Amino acid sequence: MSWTKPSAQDLYDTIDETWAPFAKEIKDGWCIREGRGGGKRVSAANQEHVSAEIGTAEAAMAALKQPALFMIRDGFPTLEMHLAKRGYSIIDPVVMLARRVADKSSDLPADFLDKPSSAQLAIWKDAGIDEHRVAVMNRVTGPKTFLQTEGATGFVAIHNEIAMVHAVEVDPDRRRKGLGRQLMLAASMWAGMKGAKTVSVIATRQNKPAQALYKGLGYEVIGHYHYRIKR
To answer: Of 55, 108, 152, 223, which has the most beta carbons under 10 Å away?
Structure first.
C-alpha cells in the first residue's frame, strides 16, 4: 500500500480533532482553546497569523480563567522571540511521529472498547491521567476506540485518514514485557481497519524510552512543537 507522509500541519490538525478541547475559537489571528482542566494540549493558544497580537491571546485566556500558555508550532519564529522578551519560558518540547498503518493480523493484540473500562481508568489514574483528561477523550466525535490489554491502556482516534494514539500507559508492575509495543501495533491495525492511511503519536523530547519504542516500530519524526508559559 502506498503511503504519503503527512506534514507537520496535518498532525497539528489531527491533535486538535483527536484530543478535543472543551471549546475552540479562532479570534484575531489566534486559536484559543478552553481546556476545563484537560491539560496543556487543550488549553494552549497558538498563533494562526504572524501579525496576531500576543496581548489579545493573553486577554482571551484570562477571560477563561486559564494561565497564559502558548503552543509554538513550526513556522512561527517571531512569536518565539516576542514571548521570550515577555518572560515566557519553554516547557515540554514535543516530537510528532508517524508511519503507515500496519496490516491487519488474524489475531488483534488488544481489546477495542467504546468506553474506558475500570481497569483502564485505574492505570490512567495512577499515571496522573485524571477524569478531566478522560473527558477530553470522551469529547472526540470522530472514529475512536479505547485500547486495552492486560496491564496496558491507550486511546486512538482518526481525523482525515490520520489516526493518533494518545494516553499510552503500562501498569508499572507489567513494564518491560512488550505491552507498549503490543498496544501500538493494535492501534495501527485498528486504524487501518477503519480506513486510516497513517498512524501517528506524540512524545516529549525527554521521554527517550517512548521515542525509542516508536522509532523501533518504524515511526518517523514529522515535526515539533513546544509551549511557553510565565513561571
So the answer is: 152
